[in-house]
């Protein structure tokens, strides 16, 4: 009961903290981190432990699914050079640098130091995207950061798994190395296979509560099966999500799709809140454990790890910028070099978050120097979220990037094509009053679209529809209050008005934002 009370308290604190998050342009994970620590200071906050494998499955699987669903394979192919640079090389360099600091200054065993490096190496691109989405930046930056969040998690977890196996002495090198060699390709094949299996079964459950539950069972089941087979669960989830994103939407109804998206948004946010709650609990436990030993040394070491993490990423990204720029000028590569400003932003988007929290919590209880490693990991999460999270917005404003309107232009061009298709289809029908009315509506929408205006934003007809819907809502509420209709009738008609309002409103009116 104490844990449940703490969770409710954190949810309330998170809701309060997230309000200034949007107005002050602060990444919501930063506010959640502060909220988690505040709840942990409460005298009744319980000491909580969680199974290591459960921590990874519970927190990482849905977050990865959500990120991979929105990232098409084409974006990975088009940006493979910067992705390899950030997702593989940067993670390996950071892991190595942190491991060196751990062995040299803290006397950690090599495997434990590598585990710490793998824990703090992968940035949480979700935190960066929450910030960058509020600015008009090049689309390629978003694609690279989203792709990085998928691939760097896979690289870091492979290193983490091997380091934990060596540190705990559970597996010899002769068995670990072959497993690692098969983990990545095996995870991809498994994820693709399970993705196709899902799109075969899911349509049969469409429109039912069982169908909604099946989404969660299939997603977490993919992770569990991959773990049981000693394959890369991260890559299995990524491949599974990309297959579903490519083929499932055309087999779903609009209602099921809207319902599915809203459920996942709320679920992933809940898991983020829970992860930061556990982070706060872990911080209190580790400080308590370290206090009788040498808390000052622990703070110094954690600060050193934080500095290394920030400096290595920023240095590598800027070095990559110079190398690619040089090779491009020499016509040795066709890769378009990023600007110095964009590389600076990408390098500063190194906020650690959910994966670092989950892997730190997932360390076995008997892991060497576990308290020190967890404390350092939590310091890196808090430090990067607060320092980089609070300064990223001012940095972007200082650099004064030009607007990238390619996304809006592509949407406009595609919308024009769809309207032309609808008009061509109407031309095949027998001329009637209804056909002429609908053709006139589409022609008006096409005229607005050609000017870069969303049809439902300026359309007089849709404006009148929304006005009428508002009047209907007021009358429906009055009839309910007066007892003219029962609640079941009210809710049925309320849902009809909701769908009608969605059909008459621009899509951005219904986007879900944090908080």
Q: Give the proportion of residues in helices.
A: over 70%
Radius of gyration: 26 Å
Strand tally = 0
Estimate what percentage of residues fall within beta strands.
under 5%
N-to-C terminal Cα separation, in Å? 25 Å
Structural class by helix and strand composition:
mainly alpha
Main β-sheet: number of strands, strand sense, barrel status? none
Low-confidence stretches: none
Number of helices: 20
**Global geometry:** globular
Arithmetic mean pLDDT:
80
Series of H and E elements: HHHHHHHHHHHHHHHHHHHH
Question: How would you characterize the overall build of this protein?
Answer:
The protein is an all-alpha fold. The protein has 20 helices and no strands. It has helices spanning 2-23, 28-40, 52-69, 73-78, 80-106, 110-120, 125-132, 139-168, 173-201, 209-228, 233-247, 254-329, 340-348, 354-361, 370-399, 406-427, 433-450, 455-458, 460-481, 487-503. The longest helix is centred in the middle third of the chain and has 76 residues, at 254-329. The model has no long low-confidence stretch (mean pLDDT 80).
Quickly list its features.
515 residues, mainly alpha, 20 helices, 0% strand
Brief summary:
With 515 residues, this protein is an all-alpha fold. It has 20 helices and no strands.
What layout of secondary structure does this protein have?
Blueprint: H1 2-23, H2 28-40, H3 52-69, H4 73-78, H5 80-106, H6 110-120, H7 125-132, H8 139-168, H9 173-201, H10 209-228, H11 233-247, H12 254-329, H13 340-348, H14 354-361, H15 370-399, H16 406-427, H17 433-450, H18 455-458, H19 460-481, H20 487-503
């Amino acid at each position: 009961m104490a844990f449940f009370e703490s969770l409710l308290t954190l949810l309330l604190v998170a809701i309060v903290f997230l309000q200034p998050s949007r107005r002050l342009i602060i990444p919501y994970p930063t506010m959640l981190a502060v909220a988690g620590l505040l709840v942990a200071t409460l005298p009744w906050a319980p000491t909580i432990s969680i199974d290591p494998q459960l921590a990874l499955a519970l927190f990482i699987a849905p977050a990865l699914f959500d990120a991979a669903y929105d990232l098409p394979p084409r974006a990975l192919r088009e940006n493979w050079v910067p992705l390899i640079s950030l997702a593989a090389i940067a993670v390996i360099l950071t892991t190595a640098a942190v491991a060196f600091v751990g062995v040299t200054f803290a006397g950690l065993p090599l495997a434990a130091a590598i585990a710490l490096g793998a824990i703090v190496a992968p940035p949480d691109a979700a935190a960066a995207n929450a910030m960058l989405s509020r600015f008009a930046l090049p689309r390629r930056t978003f694609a690279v950061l989203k792709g990085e969040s998928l691939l760097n998690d896979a690289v870091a977890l492979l290193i983490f798994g091997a380091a934990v196996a060596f540190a705990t002495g559970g597996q010899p090198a002769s068995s670990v190395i072959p497993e690692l060699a098969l983990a990545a390709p095996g995870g991809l094949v498994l994820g693709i296979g399970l993705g196709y299996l899902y799109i075969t079964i899911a349509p049969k459950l469409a429109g039912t509560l069982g169908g909604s539950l099946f989404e969660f069972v299939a997603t977490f089941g993919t992770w569990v099966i991959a773990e049981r087979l000693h394959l890369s669960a991260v890559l299995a989830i990524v491949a599974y999500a990309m297959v579903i994103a490519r083929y499932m939407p055309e087999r779903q109804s609009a209602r099921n799709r809207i319902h599915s998206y809203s459920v996942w948004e709320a679920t992933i946010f809940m898991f983020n809140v829970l992860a930061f709650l556990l982070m706060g609990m872990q911080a209190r436990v580790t400080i308590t454990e370290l206090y009788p030993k040498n808390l000052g040394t622990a703070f110094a070491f954690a600060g050193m790890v934080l500095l290394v993490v920030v400096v290595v990423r920023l240095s590598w990204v800027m070095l990559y910028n110079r190398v690619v720029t040089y090779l491009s000028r020499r016509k040795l590569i066709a890769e378009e070099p990023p600007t110095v400003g964009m590389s600076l932003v990408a390098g500063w988007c190194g906020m650690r978050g959910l994966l670092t929290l989950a892997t730190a919590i997932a360390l076995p209880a008997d892991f060497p120097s576990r308290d020190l490693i967890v404390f350092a990991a939590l310091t890196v999460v808090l430090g990067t979220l607060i320092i980089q999270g609070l300064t990223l917005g001012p940095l972007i404003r200082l650099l004064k990037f030009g607007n990238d309107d390619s996304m809006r232009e592509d949407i406009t061009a595609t919308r024009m094509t769809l309207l032309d298709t609808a008009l061509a289809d109407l031309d095949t029908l027998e001329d009637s009053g209804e056909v002429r009315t609908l053709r006139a509506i589409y022609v008006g929408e096409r005229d607005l679209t050609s000017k870069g205006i969303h049809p439902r934003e300026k359309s007089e007809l849709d404006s009148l529809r929304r006005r009428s819907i508002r009047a209907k809502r007021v009358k429906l509420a009055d009839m309910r209050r007066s007892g003219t209709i029962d609640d079941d009738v009210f809710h049925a008609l309320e849902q009809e008005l909701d769908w009608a309002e969605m059909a008459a409103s621009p899509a951005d009116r219904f986007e879900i934002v944090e908080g």
